[in-house]
Design a protein that fits this description.
- Pfam families: Anticodon_1, tRNA-synt_1.
- With 907 residues, the chain is an alpha/beta fold.
- Among the domains are: 33-173 and 477-625, HUPs (Rossmann fold); 207-439, Valyl/Leucyl/Isoleucyl-tRNA synthetase, editing domain (Isoleucyl-tRNA Synthetase, domain 2); 806-906, Class I aminoacyl-tRNA synthetases (RS) (hypothetical protein PF0899 fold, 2-Layer Sandwich), CATH 3.30.2320.20.
- The strands form nine sheets. A six-stranded mixed sheet has the order 11-9-10-7-6-17. The protein has a five-stranded parallel sheet with strand order 2-1-24-25-19, with helices on one face. A four-stranded mixed sheet has the order 12-13-8-14, covered by helices on one side.
- The chain binds one RNA strand of 88 nucleotides through helix 12, helix 13, helix 15, strand 20 and helix 20.
RNA sequence: GCGGGGGUGCCCGAGAGGUCAAAGGGGUCGGGCUCAAGACCCGAUGGGCUCAGGCCCACCAGGGGUUCGAAUCCCCUCCCCCGCACCA
């Protein structure tokens, strides 16, 4: 069993060592050379990176190395993202002995003896940063590691940088303050993140809805003007309310809420209302019986509607009082149906069902979609929770996007729900019929054993992405950028338009605090927008005591503001150097990553650059790639095809992996298919190329070049042009396909000439090796060294243009056609080994009236070409080949010969 | 619903008005090499006809159109994937 892996691994180690020792990827400012600044968004290091990341970063390496070959002074720095909650959450959960986390760690091959280190966020972050850095190095990335940075207060320089950035944004009035809902522990009043709750509730977010206040028809006791507040996500269905639901076994109270009287359940909901700035004072208890059977008034339609009992009403959710829309809400429909079987309420329930109103026109449904779906899914009762959830979701979704309001909606009639809902809600809130409210879809307890509620924080900070002037700049930036694939420009513009203000601060997460309001931490998308600039000076700024760094340093280095002499006195000459580095490297020439970042990170990146920097420093290019499938399947732990970068480089040769990564796809939104099952083929392919090079370099015939020599040189020339274009766009699959084309042409070349020309074979070796270099730099470095070329400073091959003045392409095409015809004939007449092949060229007169552009002009020319081809054909078919002319031939078939289409006779 | 990406032969995937039955893989079948397997090499792989390099029909989600000519352009329909946010 052949196995080249060990050989490759040795070569890889060797070159990685040399690169590191010689610092070949640590570029210095050099005004005499054009610069190229390439970045890939840093990964979030909550664990080991997998082959999906490898795909993105390896593509980064392809372009970095390609640009180096093209003579650019290339900088590729890399960092790590630690900001946000997942690291905090995971380390916390590990500390608590969470099984899932332990399982994950074990499946990643993390030894249990290391777990202790991971039990705090800092330890976790450092640990995985180290492992992932190691993987990046093993993959051979040409990163300038002097500039390796990571985020959050754990890195005081980064922290200073982010704070500077946010002060700038605030100065420019791009930060605003507002209120924002958050999930809180009801007793401790602290924000409850995923790690503060049981696993099964991770990821549950609040819902935004409204409370509609239904006045009670009569007094309760001697109090008048009491409201039944109904929380709903579907305010627009208020026109179809037939009744109100309360839980028959629930405990309710009469409370004074602000200046009104409300009926509310005596539950955690009171606390939640208070957390949302309602002033709630309990007056007295009210039993469900006191309410059931009474009537309320629909505040919009003024209909009189009964209050009825329903078991499905959860007195801890919403307001514990529910408006019932049987026409469009499956729960309500089935509950009324249930109630028709009840002695006491059957009449009222039937009446309610009769009063159902058609609200929306919805294709595929009758005027009462709730009834339709209850029947379709065969929902039997309100206990049928799963089906009801599904039904509700379906109807809600369909009605929201496709439901057309009927006449009853007045000015909204004819519109779709999503078109008018926002305005409608605004209106009923202004009319004081309703109020905005947030709640949870399920009530659960925090790890501190208290129920969790939604509260409003009043001092939440926002990035003002709604700012029209800011949007304008962002659009302008996109317009001026190279975005590949090009059609994504439109998508970028749309996202810029669509963004509203972004809540940029969280609590209890890893990150940098907001400099003027230190209880807030900048959330993870918001602290990672401008750091590409920070890379340019990071290797230098680290020499300065972070304690001493003030905004004046950044103002000077990035914006050229401040008194230079004074600043030099304060920080030293180094700030001059920093300014120079920044101005040399900036702007970013290419930033490349996956399509998942388009709508978030890349938009932020653009916005913030336009806010802080002058136009000439705005980002210049973005290249987007798709997801990665491994062997045609989505990579996931449950499918068992999950491969971490660490697994991969330990098991396979990295050059083979890099080759497969290149071959897996082009830029764009399509998913790439990384065929790990082909890793051996890739190794073999590369190994064969390696042996070919060292065995053939400087070998071969030395003589006048034949037409076929020129033809192959021409192929090389043409292909290298194509490959250049594909590299610029990171269409790596196309690059490899072009290399395969070269290989196929070489095969034909050898068939045609037997022994290759020395110049030609050398050219082939150099061209293909260099073109492969960005993809498989280790083995190519080895090749270059073995054949006596500089492996540390390779440059893009210069191939002289070979013009097609000899009709080289058509000549070869002609010969190939003759060859194909012969094999077709052999097949049809079922001869395997011909004794002789006669090729008879058309008689002279037939050439007289040829089309202008035909490449063969006369009989002599065709004869020459055929004589040249005779050896090739004879070798291929193992027989003699006679070339003759029609004039002299005695063969009957010779008469059929035409110019460019000689008669072929096989004996 | 909006926005984006798609639907090509057994499968994956290129092609973006003629040179297109449609590149390249893979699979399958047949053959070669081999003690044998793998690897490698050659051939076949829509249907029908034709024992001399050939011809005819069908065909690129479905339907219609533009054109001398459409997988490619236009219109309609159907289907699939992704996003629609406060999260890395």
């Amino acid at each position: 069993m052949e196995n080249f892996t060990d050989f490759f691994k040795k070569v890889e180690e060797k070159w990685q060592r040399i690169w590191e020792e010689k610092g070949v990827y640590q570029p210095e400012v050099d005004e005499s050379k054009p610069k190229f600044f390439m970045t890939v968004p840093y990964p979030y290091v909550s664990g080991l990176l997998h082959l999906g990341s490898a795909y993105t970063y390896t593509r980064g390496d392809f372009i970095a190395r390609y640009k180096r070959l093209r003579g650019y002074n290339v900088l590729w720095p890399q960092g790590w993202h630690l900001t946000g909650s997942p690291i905090v959450s995971r380390s916390y959960r590990l500390k608590m002995g969470d099984k899932k986390i332990i399982e994950d760690l074990i499946s990643d091959g993390i030894p249990e003896s290391d777990f202790k280190k991971l039990e705090n966020p800092e330890g976790w972050a450092i640990y995985f940063m180290n492992l992932n850095r190691e993987a990046f190095k093993k993959f051979g990335y040409s990163i300038d590691w002097r500039r390796e940075l990571y985020t959050t207060y754990l890195n005081p320089w980064y922290d200073k940088f982010v704070k500077w950035q946010y002060r700038k944004l605030k100065e420019k009035n791009l930060i605003t303050k507002g209120s924002h809902p958050v999930i809180l522990d009801s007793k401790l009043k602290i924000v409850i993140g995923d790690h503060d709750r049981p696993d099964e509730y991770a990821g549950i977010s609040y819902q935004e809805g409204i409370i509609i206040k239904f006045p009670l028809e009569n007094k309760l006791g001697d109090i008048e003007g009491i409201f039944l507040p109904c929380f709903t996500l579907r305010s627009e269905t208020i026109y179809g309310v037939t009744n109100i639901w309360i839980n028959p076994s629930g405990k309710y109270v009469l409370a004074k809420v602000n200046s009104e009287y409300w009926i509310l359940p005596n539950t955690i909901i009171l606390e939640e209302l208070r957390a949302q700035k309602f002033n709630v004072e309990i007056i007295r208890e009210v039993s469900a019986e006191e309410l059931i059977g009474k009537n309320a008034i629909n505040p919009i339609t003024k209909d009189k509607i009964p209050i009825l009992p329903a078991k499905f009403v959860d007195i801890e959710i919403g307001t514990g009082i529910v408006m019932s829309v049987p026409s469009d809400a499956p729960y309500d429909y089935i509950a009324l149906l249930d109630l028709t079987k009840d002695q006491e309420y059957s009449k009222i329930a039937e009446d309610c069902l009769r009063k159902m109103k058609p609200l929306f026109r919805l294709e595929g449904y009758s005027e009462f979609p709730a009834r339709d779906i209850v029947e379709k899914l065969e929902i039997k009762s309100q206990e049928d929770r799963d089906k009801l959830e599904k039904a509700t979701k379906e109807i809600y979704n369909k009605e929201f996007y496709n439901g057309i309001a009927r006449e009853i909606y007045g000015k909204y009639a004819g519109k779709k729900v999503f078109e008018f809902k926002e305005e409608f809600e605004k209106e009923i809130i202004e009319e004081k019929i309703a109020v905005r409210y947030y709640t949870l879809p399920i009530r659960f307890v925090s790890r501190y054993n208290n129920k969790v509620i939604v509260g409003i924080v009043e001092d939440q900070w926002f990035l003002k992405y709604s700012d029209i002037e800011w949007k304008k700049l962002a659009h302008e930036c996109v317009d001026g950028m190279f975005i590949y694939p090009e059609n994504l420009k439109k998508v970028f513009h749309e996202y810029i338009e669509w963004y509203k203000d972004w809540a940029c601060t969280h609590q209890k997460e890893l990150g940098s605090t907001l400099p003027w309001d230190e209880k807030w931490t900048l959330e993870s998308l918001s602290d990672s927008t401008l750091y590409t600039a920070f890379y340019t000076i990071y290797n230098l700024i680290k020499k300065i005591d972070p304690e001493k760094i003030g905004d004046d340093l950044f103002d000077y280095v990035f914006l050229g503001k401040g008194n230079k002499e004074e600043l030099i006195r304060k920080y030293g000459e180094i700030i001059e150097e920093m300014r120079r580095e920044f101005l040399y490297w900036y702007p970013v020439d290419i930033r490349t990553s996956g399509k998942d970042l388009i709508g978030n990170h890349f938009i932020f990146y653009i916005f913030h650059h336009t806010a802080i920097f002058p136009k000439e420093l705005w980002p210049k290019g973005i290249i987007i790639n798709g997801w990665v499938l491994t062997d045609g399947k989505k990579m996931s732990k449950s499918l068992g095809n999950y491969v971490s970068m660490k697994d991969a480089y330990e098991k396979y040769s990295v050059d083979a992996l890099r080759f497969l990564i290149a071959y897996s796809g082009n830029s764009g939104l399509d998913d790439a298919n990384l065929e790990l099952s082909k890793v051996e083929n890739a190794e073999r392919y590369l190994m064969e190329w390696y042996s070919f090079c060292i065995n053939n370099y400087n070998k071969g015939r030395v003589s006048e070049k034949l037409p076929v020599d020129l033809w192959f040189e021409r192929v090389l020339y043409e292909k290298i042009k194509v490959i250049e274009m594909e590299y610029e766009r990171l269409n790596m699959r196309n690059v490899i396909n072009s290399i395969y084309d070269i290989d196929n042409s070489y095969k034909w070349y050898i068939k045609r000439c037997g022994e290759p020309h020395r110049d030609v074979i050398n050219k082939y070796i150099i061209v293909k090796s260099i073109v492969l270099y960005p993809i498989v730099p280790h083995i190519v470095s080895e090749i270059l060294e073995r054949i006596g070329l500089d492996p540390l400073n390779p440059s893009w091959p210069y191939v002289e243009e070979v013009k097609d003045f000899e009709n080289l392409d058509k000549r070869e095409e002609y010969i190939r056609k003759i060859r194909d015809d012969i094999s077709k004939i052999l097949e049809i007449i079922r001869i395997e080994k011909p004794k002789k092949i006669k090729i008879i060229v058309a008689r002279k007169e037939k050439y007289r009236n040829l089309k202008e552009n035909y490449f063969i002009r006369n009989q002599e020319e065709e004869l020459n070409i055929l004589k040249d081809a005779a050896t090739t054909i004879s070798k291929e078919f193992y027989c003699d080949v006679d070339i003759d002319i029609e004039e002299k031939s005695s063969e009957e078939k010779s008469k059929k010969a035409l110019p460019g289409k000689p008669a072929i006779i096989v004996i």
